Amino acid sequence: MVRVTQAEIQITLEEFLALPETQPAREYVEGQIEQKPMPQGEQSTLQIRLGTVINEAALAKKLAHAFTELRCTFAGRSVVPDISVFTWERIPKTEQGKIANRFESHPDWVIEILSPDQSANQVIRKILFCIHHGTQLGWLIDPTDESVMIVKPNLFPEIKFGDDILPTLETLEDLQLSAQELFSWLSFQ
User: Which of 67, 101, 123, 185 reaches 20 to 30 Å from 107, CA-CA?
Assistant: First the structure.
């Protein structure tokens, strides 16, 4: 992510949310606007495939829903994780029972896929912010070294790779995915 440097003007969250959406998305962090990088091939592939695999395991049983590039506004910030997973009962709904457009809560599981031009520490800060505000699980996927950093509340981060099974939400215990399988989606041989 890159900070928008329009004289580093501080704005309020409400002012930020009133701005038109952009592609790629911008995020609001501590009074500043940060521009997300445009997804590239690896990130886009992993984002679509992983979101699909999670939804195939979760939607029919009404366990959870994975959303790509969903704006989540909570605790004074507005972030757009690559994938946000909400357990079924926490998905915001309208009075008519339809899915709400605005998500004003933390995801239960946040997944970020590191782009070549992103700062790993900046993305880790976003994951830690989510964890500190109620998120149960965070993944930082690094396609370059084919590893996944796992972040959970009150535990040291773990790095998974190769045949290591990647942890998911407890409600999705049937979803078994290894790091090797995840990164195999990038091979088109």
Answer: 185
Q: What is the pTM of this model?
A: 0.91
Cβ proximity of 43 and 50 under 8 Å: no
Assess if residue 1 is contained within a domain: no
Element at 160 (helix H, strand E) = strand 158-161
CA dist., res. 128 & res. 153, Å (int): 9
Range of the domain at 114: 38-184
CA 52 centroid distance within chain? 14
Whether the bond between 81 and the residue before it is cis, its omega within 30 degrees of 0, is: no
Does residue 23 belong to any structural domain of this protein? no
In total, how many domains does the chain have? Answer: 1
Task: With respect to residue 21, please indicate whether it lies within any of the assigned structural domains.
Answer: no
143-156 per-position pLDDT tens digit: 999 999 999 999 99
> Is 32 inside a domain boundary?
no
Distance of CA 65 to the CA centre of its chain: 12
Q: DSSP assignment, residue 88?
A: G
Q: Which long-range contacts (CB under 8 A, 24 or more apart) does 158-163 make?
A: none
Is pLDDT above 70 for 18? Answer: yes
How far apart, in Å, are the Cα atoms of 157 and each of 24, 42, 145?
A: 28, 23, 17
* Collapsed DSSP state (helix, strand, coil) of residue 118: coil
